Amino acid sequence: MSWFPQIGAGSVAQFPLSRSRRWRVIVNQMESNEVISLPDTAAGQIGWKLSYQDLTDTEVQKLGGLFTASHGAFGAFTFIDPLANLLGWSETLSQSTWQLGLLQATANVADPLGTQRASSLTNTGQGTQSLRQSLGVSGDYVACFSAYLRSSVSGSVTLQRDGTAHMVTVGPSWQRFFVNGTGVAGASQSTFSIVLAAGQTIDVWGLQLEAQPYPSLYKQTSAPLGIYEETYFAGDELAVTSTGVGFSSCEITLISRV
Prior knowledge:
Blueprint: E1 17-22, E2 25-29, E3 35-39, E4 45-56, H1 57-69, E5 77-80, E6 103-109, E7 118-123, E8 129-135, E9 143-150, E10 155-161, E11 164-170, E12 175-181, E13 190-196, E14 201-210, E15 227-233, E16 240-244, E17 247-257
């Protein structure tokens, strides 16, 4: 499966960009004038309008290479929503999308907003244990995994993407930490984890994963969304305008099936 290329230090898009959601309903009007409407769920689409400035020649080549490999609007590729938190159930650690090992999770803990949406994690095992979630994010993609953490007893916690680990010191005040970069080259999936030492307890809130190098404002999620494996160019022409020596601009319209 091909992936829509990242640009710069690891961004999917530049501002401004727009995202529109489309639904389709099948309507049948009977002879009695009764109208029967049914949703055509398989026809749902998301439209993307992306505008790029100051693209390097290498970035233009990557976009053109995907366009050629897709035969214009014919072939599908994977596109990641540049505005989304990709993690599923970011505040419900009891959901099956999360793997806890021997960790015990307690919900309804006070969070940085003054509500009760955080969770407490306790490692009841004899060795390190991790809270983790695996997603279909290419190992070649730059991504940022972040979370707000605190602990009544100061200690070290590790944020990890596959083999890339970032150890942080957690104290009694809420603080946001993150690990960023690429994963395993060529891999079709990545695993994002928070690793606790034996006997350790921490509070966690605001778990977030984004296809960019640094974290943005936290967005609560339910079911995992944002990775669209059936995305197409909307037309059979890719227009690129040279704006200077080694720099170009272009506008791209994509359609994702959902």
